[in-house]
Design goal:
This protein is 18% helix and 33% strand. It is of the alpha+beta class. The strands form ten sheets. It has an eight-stranded mixed beta sheet, with helices on both faces.
Length: 708
């Protein structure tokens, strides 16, 4: 088959001398998305993709299967404030989720429906923060990849707007003061106060009083010395104390500041945890007395729970309440301290080799009391309790064949049951899920989750291998419509828990970041090699898929070992690791990847940067780069530059394509666009691995669910 005819992309002679390294960048001109030449080239790529997609004869069948296995309803636990519950619901046919309120009698009503605000479906419900009394709620909406992200305050009883908008609050944290008349929040410094090319965050913690103009909001924390900090906010139940966590980007350690709120507009904040000194993550929560509950990986890479006196700056004085389990990393915990309970309790979630466990502890002593039964060997997430005092805890449960389902634990009765009116229903295939262990090249054992059809099968299967391997984010055997559809068509879906993730705690993350990022990539290629060598698949049947930093993982893996793969799908990836700091939020990720401004770290980056390791004349696999036209997270130049480089270099009869989507975001889109993307990914992967959805009888079962 002849090579494809791609849109012409001129190769410039840009070469930089960086600390003695001559770094070529022939497609730097594609970084300027406002240039007409770049726009014309991108439009030609759009036409090429659409023309090529017309040949995917099974696209419609894949789309039908994706719709069949997609779950609908409520997938996250409610936020309970006094007698009122707030929950997000998305039914079949909805482009966006809507915010519902459920009263003490169980009556449900819609408080915010984004489609009523924007019928196009491009405006989504991003976040919501109910006041402690449940009488008001701060709501944040977002429009595709537009940088604006305002906060509005609604009266819960009437649904009317009582305050706002508060601008520039993208990725904010928010903490209400008792009474619902004021809250702390985080917003960026106005653009007019910054230099034109300043990409830093420049965030400030402010106090807002309901009814006051945002211009009058007092800055209580943050300054020019911390341009890349994220802030997390917590106020004690009595409103007497404020805690602020400060993290440089998604770094693996953070500072903690505490203040007595004698004057909420001028809190005297004292640093009680110095992140750079401890090199640990510490998340504080206020207890009823003058103590803090600290969830930390300090001297406990898999996490432990401690108590400490407020303002105690010496970690040696921390008391371990729930000790580290080196075989089961700590995920989260929640306090249940309703006065009606015989004693305050602590509910703790851990994960052992991908399977969650919930244990109940005495809050005073940490003594384990019981382990809660779960619906199966699956994944628990999003523990939530009543505020201000909890008797009930809610959590989401899923496994490979079970969509996210909400359960409620009653600490008074000890019973766990499915939440009324908050379940999901759908058709899912019969899936066999199991975890296996393979050895990386250096002998390290790594977990690989395998999702396969339930029936026995001898021989290899078309396989879709997924990975992430960054920021300490753990991979779990979650339910995913993409995975369910692939397995439903007869394929194997695999997830490699490579180093750089958080599956085995902080040490696992440290082993695959910074100077060790190359390990995540070789771990991933070793997973592919294991799948092939054990006869589960072949290189002609193996596709790989990654999103964001996972897109970096798969593109780097494929540029190092193109012989292993038939197809590569990279969604919103990082590809140019020399200039990633100049795009999107890349300037905040140097703790994870390193910085090209440091000679030694530049060497790390050049060793695996996909864009800089493309070799002309190589028979590369089929590539599909998917991304938003405007990507405020990673920046769209990664996709355009990598696509151009591969199209010029490949000596293969397999295409290199770019799928751009307007009016979407880096990681969230209207539901119809999200399902269309999944169908395209499956059709592309199926075409080059030989998986045919039309030739397979898909076994599905009705997932038990409660009608709304």
């Amino acid at each position: 088959m002849a090579r494809f005819s791609y849109p012409a992309a001129r190769r410039s002679d840009v070469v930089e001398d960086l600390f003695g390294f001559r770094v070529s960048d022939p497609y730097r001109w594609l970084e300027n998305g406002d240039d007409s030449c770049v726009q014309d080239w991108a439009a030609a790529q759009d036409r090429l993709f659409r023309a090529y997609r017309t040949g995917w004869h099974e696209k419609r069948s894949w789309a039908s299967l994706v719709d069949q296995v997609s779950s609908f309803g409520v997938s996250e636990p409610p936020m309970a404030r006094g007698p009122v519950m707030f929950l997000a619901e998305q039914l079949r046919g909805d482009e966006q989720q809507r915010l519902l309120v459920v009263d003490a009698e169980g009556n449900r009503r819609v408080l915010v429906d984004p489609v009523e605000i924007d019928p196009s479906g491009h405006t989504g419900l991003y976040a919501w923060w109910p006041s402690r009394e449940g009488e008001r709620v701060a709501v944040q909406m977002e429009v595709a990849e537009q940088p604006g992200s305002d906060i509005m305050v609604l009266d819960v009883r009437t649904g009317e707007t009582v305050d706002g908008p508060l601008p520039r609050a993208r990725n904010t944290s928010l903490a209400w003061l008792p009474g619902g008349d004021a809250f702390y929040y985080v917003s960026r410094v106005p653009d007019e106060e910054l230099a034109p090319d300043d990409m830093r965050l420049h965030r400030r913690v402010r106090l807002h009083r309901i009814g006051s103009p945002w211009q009058a909001d007092t800055v209580v924390f943050g300054d020019d010395d911390a341009p890349d900090h994220y802030y997390g906010l917590t106020v004690s139940a009595d409103g007497r104390c404020l805690a602020i966590t400060a993290t440089v980007g998604p770094a693996s350690h953070n500072d903690v500041y505490l203040a007595e709120l004698v004057d909420p507009e001028a809190p005297h904040l004292v640093k009680i945890v110095d992140g750079p000194t401890l090199r640990a993550r510490v998340l504080p929560r206020f207890l009823a007395d003058d103590h803090l509950l600290l969830v930390t990986d300090y001297q406990a890479p898999c996490g432990r729970i401690c108590t400490a006196r407020r303002h105690d700056t010496d970690p040696a004085a921390w008391h371990t309440l729930v000790a580290e389990d080196p075989q089961a990393p700590l995920d989260e915990c929640v306090v249940l301290d309703d006065p009606a309970l015989p004693r305050p309790l602590l509910l703790v979630a851990r994960t052992r080799h991908g399977t969650s466990a919930l244990t109940l502890h005495d809050l005073a002593s940490g003594r384990p009391l019981t382990e809660l039964p779960l619906p199966g060997a699956g994944v628990v997430s999003s523990l939530r309790a009543n505020i201000p005092h909890g008797r009930h805890a809610w959590f989401s449960y899923c496994d490979a064949a079970t969509p996210p389902t909400i359960y409620r634990y009653d600490a008074a009765s000890g019973e766990t049951e499915q939440e009324t009116g908050a379940t999901t229903a759908g058709n899912t295939p019969e899936i066999r899920s199991r975890g296996v262990r393979y050895r990386a090249g250096d002998g390290t054992e790594i977990t690989l989750f395998l999702f396969t059809p339930a029936e026995e099968h001898q021989g290899s299967r078309p396989t879709l291998l997924y990975g992430y391997g960054s920021f300490g984010m753990p991979m779990r055997p979650w339910f995913l419509p993409l995975a369910a559809a692939w397995v439903g068509a007869g394929g194997t879906y695999a997830v490699a828990c490579v180093r750089g993730g958080g599956e085995e705690g902080r040490r696992w993350h440290d082993a695959g970041r910074g100077p060790h990022k190359h390990r995540a990539i070789t771990d991933f290629n070793d997973a592919a090699t294991w799948l092939i060598n054990t006869g589960r698949t072949t290189s002609d049947q193996l596709a790989i898929y990654g999103q964001s930093a996972g897109g970096l993982l798969v593109t780097a893996a494929a540029t190092q070992r193109p012989d292993l793969y038939a197809a590569v799908i990279a969604e919103g990836p990082l590809c140019d690791m020399v200039r990633y700091e100049r795009f999107g939020l890349g300037c905040t990720w140097t703790d994870e990847f390193g910085s090209a401004s440091e000679p030694e770290q530049l060497q790390w980056l050049l060793s695996y940067s996909p864009y800089h390791n493309v070799t002309p004349g190589t028979p590369y696999p089929a590539f599909l780069f998917a991304g938003a036209v405007t990507d405020l997270q990673t920046g769209e130049a990664h996709v355009t530059k990598m696509c151009a480089a591969l199209q010029s270099a490949t000596d293969s009869d397999r295409p290199v394509l770019m799928r751009r989507e307007p009016d979407t975001a880096h990681a969230a889109s209207p539901a119809s666009k999200e399902r269309a993307l999944v169908a395209d990914i499956l059709a592309f992967a199926g075409r080059y691995t030989g998986l045919s959805v039309e030739e397979t009888t898909t076994r599905v079962r009705e997932t038990a669910g409660e009608a709304h």
